[in-house]
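Q&A log
Question type: sequence-to-structure
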Amino acid sequence: MELYIVPIFNGIASNGQNLSEFIDSYPDIEIGYLFVNYVIAQLTDLPFFLLLSIHILIIVPLYITAMKWREQLSPVLFMFIFYMIFYQESLSIVRQSIALSFSMLAFTFFWEKKFIRYFLYMAIAFLFHQTAVIALSFPLVYLMVDKFSIQKYYYAYIGIILAFGLLFLNLDNILIWMIENDYIDLKFLKYTSAGDTFTPVLGTANFVVKIVIIAYIIYVMVLYKSDTILKFFLIMAILDMLFSLCALIVQPLDRISLYYRLISCISLPYIIFNYPVFFTEEDTPYTRPFEGVFCFLLFAYWFYVYMLGNYDDTADYQISSTLFI
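Response status: OK
Response body:
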């Protein structure tokens, strides 16, 4: 906050710029985020109110999304998953977090076939972070799995995954070649081995959670008729895993996986609610407690990655080993 949010906000009053001049002075920052800064600065000089506004812009669209799905999933579980797998990171990547939230709300309107609202909210998301364009893949993937059955086009899907793997292995060379030939801006050099972000990210805990989610979706698909929504959730989970693997080579690519990761806020509660798995004891059926299992797993993930690991310096409190001696 002190290194990123506050300096921009305080600069508005100290520089005496109008809105146009203020936006022009930060060409690498999206207009939506700068506009929010400028409006709040006209009302108060306290950064607290800017931070409050940012969190409203992150949480409210997600809450609306959860409530719009409430007949098909638990909004409480939706928000719990959000807090466990993403909220801590939203404290540092505020622009993309706002874009992610509006992208999720936009996809909900696509699901409801309200396409004007879908494009409106996608436009708002893009105004806060250009990576929002990634969320345009949500409806494309859904339409793809709806039209092209995984069972029927099995080899085609395998080919796509292998092609992605080849891209992953050569990603660094591809980026450097595109920069050297002026296909993309020089500022993207920092996302290559020539920059300072060419380092691993997260670790085993991240992939354990993703593998468990993928295994659970496949398990449900085997038990139930594999309909379009389950296939969509599976592809989203796999894309989350693949882009996280890419982040082992180029760390900022973890930002891409965040879009697919947040779909878990819908997929897990939706599957638990609509595809219950039973076991029988003395001829009495009982629902398998997957909800409790995932709550425990995600809480353990949150505690390990953010509290103990302080990933992205987002821990509210550091856990000291001396507390346990």
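Response note: The chain is about 65% helix and 0% strand.
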